[in-house]
Amino acid sequence: MEEAGNDVDTNNAEEQDIGLKVLLRLARPHRKPIVLGLFLGLAGSLGALAQPMAARTILDAVTDKSGLLGPLLTLIALVLAGAVMSGLQLFILERAGERMVLGLRLRLIQRLLHLKVAEYDRRQTGDLLSKAGSDTTLLRSVLTANVLDALPGVVTIVGAIALMVYLDWILLVVVLAVIAVVTLVVAPALSRIRDSTHTAQEHVGHMTSSLERALSAIRTVKAGVMQDTEAGRIGGHARSAYTAGVRTVKLDAFISVGTALAMQLSFLVVLGVGGYRVASGTLPAADLIAFLLYVMYLGSPLMVITAAVSQLQKAFAAAARIMEADTMDTEFPDVVTVTSPESVTERSPRRETGREGTPPTVEFDRVTFTYRTDEPVLSEVSFRIDAGMKTAIVGPSGVGKTTVLNLLERFYDPTAGRILFDGRDLATLPLNSLRARIGYVEQTAPVLAGTLRENLLYGTHRDVPAKELAEVVRAVRLDHIVRGLPDGLDSPVGERGSQLSGGERQRVAAARLLLRRPGLILLDEATSQLDSPNEQALQEAFDAVADRATTIVVAHRLSTVVASDRIIVLAGGGVRSVGTHAELMDTDEFYRELARGQLLARG
Ligand SMILES: Nc1ncnc2c1ncn2[C@@H]1O[C@H](COP(=O)(O)OP(=O)(O)OP(=O)(O)O)[C@@H](O)[C@H]1O
């Protein structure tokens, strides 16, 4: 038990250390406005601190019946200058906080989009969303509203204490003793605030993940009458976040009560001790009044600073969650880390212009691939596809057909062996220019939200003439659908293309591929949801570009297979046979079975 407790403490200490380091690193590029803000705060504080002194001269002037105008004007000038400076300082510091968070968000977005595909497999999308949303928002509100605003208060406190020493050090010792006792009592609450905030943010992450999962499969949820079950489960995370939130609020309240109590007690004790000393003639009345005013001045920055220290624990918890993004693998080694003070540079897709249309030769050289640590999906797979060839990959479900396409897109890298692209190892080619040469229609043919036009032009990276767009739309038989839409090509397609049918989504994906004019075409059962006339049309459209491309199709239909130059039969993690349809029908019993069963059934 004790060891576990120690462990938690070490983690806490580490988290606090890392959190503080991260915040300082984030603040570094903004040190100029922060210093300026602090300077204004210092000037404002000095002005405020001078006010009781000015008040004392007014009192003295009244007692002495000397000139009142000078001290009065000084006091008014001090009040006005103090107000303007504190306003300016607030603006400058809060803007610096906003900029820190903007930089952090831009780097986080950049990083989350450049993770390796395996990282998305491992993590929950919603949790990544929650880092970018709720964690950066928490950090922002803490930094701007609490921490930076509290910094000038430090100056006020130091100044007030210095002036109190000047006025009467005995009373100061009394005040500091009261504050020290109360601080000792509330200090342990701070680390507990960090813990409960971390727990709350984690539950918000789980809630976002679960909600994202349910909403992305909402039709399945409804069809299974699972709305209430899902609502209960997701609500469970919301409730856990609430419980942790309430714990934080309790601790916050405890700390703020402690601070307020310290101030009030100090005031009363100073009043008592000071009053006695005034009565016994050892302290002038004007000094006691000035001293009491300083105790009051001390109150507000002390409250703000204590609140800031407790809020800072929340910032540490949020920073620790955001920083997890730096431990995730990215596709490019130079993707900026979330916590670096660098600003994000836009990265444009590097294309080998003029080469993207040329069909490549593709070769698998003893490729072994394992998704995780279990059985390899592909072991020692070797085949060669010559430039301009149309090759079909067939095999039983789950044998690794899609995996072959994923490896060509470098969504994953082989565990062993090499993939050659025009004789060059795929791993040595610039990733963006490689992908720019490939057109991939996935099995699920995803469509993004937005208009039909945006979806068709997605990833083309060039100005497509209206005539070419219209031709492609006609070629994939989307033209009559476009005519039926209220705004034609500019009509929205709904979230994930929900306003389109499965077949229409596939045709949008196919059109997108044609517009990209890729040298290597990868089709994953791209025609599986189409009826015969549409499939025929799409086939013709692909055939028209296939002359200029190497095509690899994961085939589930006999018609696709028969039209291919070569067929690769995958079975048991390896290549079983290669040949034309006629050759394989003659020589491969397994293929014959496959053709009769799987391919004919769907063809
Ligand atoms: N991201 C992933 N993480 C872990 N395992 C995976 C992943 N994707 C696929 N697999 C597993 O790898 C194996 C091959 O999957 P793949 O999608 O390549 O099969 P397939 O031959 O295309 O199947 P189908 O014809 O049913 O589409 C399957 O057993 C699958 O469960």
Automatic annotation (TrEMBL):
<feature type="transmembrane region" description="Helical">
    <location>
        <begin position="72"/>
        <end position="93"/>
    </location>
</feature>
<dbReference type="InterPro" id="IPR027417">
    <property type="entry name" value="P-loop_NTPase"/>
</dbReference>
<feature type="compositionally biased region" description="Basic and acidic residues">
    <location>
        <begin position="344"/>
        <end position="355"/>
    </location>
</feature>
<feature type="transmembrane region" description="Helical">
    <location>
        <begin position="169"/>
        <end position="190"/>
    </location>
</feature>
<keyword id="KW-1133">Transmembrane helix</keyword>
<dbReference type="Pfam" id="PF00664">
    <property type="entry name" value="ABC_membrane"/>
</dbReference>
<feature type="region of interest" description="Disordered">
    <location>
        <begin position="338"/>
        <end position="361"/>
    </location>
</feature>
<feature type="domain" description="ABC transporter">
    <location>
        <begin position="362"/>
        <end position="597"/>
    </location>
</feature>
<feature type="transmembrane region" description="Helical">
    <location>
        <begin position="138"/>
        <end position="163"/>
    </location>
</feature>
<keyword id="KW-0472">Membrane</keyword>
<dbReference type="InterPro" id="IPR039421">
    <property type="entry name" value="Type_1_exporter"/>
</dbReference>
<feature type="transmembrane region" description="Helical">
    <location>
        <begin position="34"/>
        <end position="52"/>
    </location>
</feature>
<dbReference type="InterPro" id="IPR036640">
    <property type="entry name" value="ABC1_TM_sf"/>
</dbReference>
<dbReference type="InterPro" id="IPR011527">
    <property type="entry name" value="ABC1_TM_dom"/>
</dbReference>
<keyword id="KW-0547">Nucleotide-binding</keyword>
<keyword id="KW-0067">ATP-binding</keyword>
<dbReference type="Pfam" id="PF00005">
    <property type="entry name" value="ABC_tran"/>
</dbReference>
<dbReference type="InterPro" id="IPR003439">
    <property type="entry name" value="ABC_transporter-like_ATP-bd"/>
</dbReference>
<keyword id="KW-0812">Transmembrane</keyword>
<feature type="transmembrane region" description="Helical">
    <location>
        <begin position="288"/>
        <end position="309"/>
    </location>
</feature>
<dbReference type="InterPro" id="IPR003593">
    <property type="entry name" value="AAA+_ATPase"/>
</dbReference>
<protein>
    <submittedName>
        <fullName>ABC transporter</fullName>
    </submittedName>
</protein>
<feature type="transmembrane region" description="Helical">
    <location>
        <begin position="253"/>
        <end position="276"/>
    </location>
</feature>
<feature type="domain" description="ABC transmembrane type-1">
    <location>
        <begin position="35"/>
        <end position="314"/>
    </location>
</feature>
